[in-house]
Protein: Transcriptional regulator
Organism: Lentzea cavernae
Amino acid sequence: MVTDVAQELASFLRSRRERLDPAQLGLPVRRQRRTPGLRREEVAELAGVSVDYVVRLEQARGLRPSADVVEALAGALRLDSDERAYFFGLARQRPRVEAKAATEAAPSLVQLVADLSPRPAMVMNHRFDLLAWNDEMVEVLLDFDTLPPSHRNAIWLCLLHPEIRELYVDRERVVREGVAHLRTAWAAHPDDRVLADLIAECATGDEEFARLWSTGDVRHNGRGHKVMRHPRAGEITLRFETLTPTQDPDQLLVVYRPADDASRAAMDLLT
């Protein structure tokens, strides 16, 4: 059954308005209420929009509310996270992303990374800070615990760490794609000062980064491959998948797997 989006948005707003208890929101409870829940006037006042606008939305009269209006109505209607995401989807809008990044991996993701052994796996935030990893990832790259927290960042390592810089056979492509990913993250989190400082540090400390950043390339790809020239295992080709957990959308789970038999044998040697 195909549902008209405007009609579904209208029905969704009405149902969420009608389920609210005025008394719980500190609103005066009048004896004569012809419909359950809040009045349209009350929703409009809580959201800071006109009553006529709420009426037209609930009548499916072809309006497309802005992201700010959707945010305001979501707050007024006390929508939970799932309902809020659904409302934004119906309105064809994207919610604003808070600049604050996760500094620790969710416990369930830490356990998942450990359970993925012998596949190398790690968790990053939107800045590409490394939050959790398993022993196999340490064997492939390096022991991240030996680094200061500010340098536990995939982009910084690829650009400025002397060992990791020489690890990738096709380093130019890896760096180019990494910078494009970082620009995409920056666009989604323009108020993140830590991310801005990371970009400034890389641009100052690496001419290659500054050149690639100036091209304006963007990329949002969670799948690919990397060829590494490992000092102990020789050449290894690894495919990677980047997954975003539904409950922790700011955290990225990255899993590597050997691309061929030779790489699988090399990984067995390492792990």
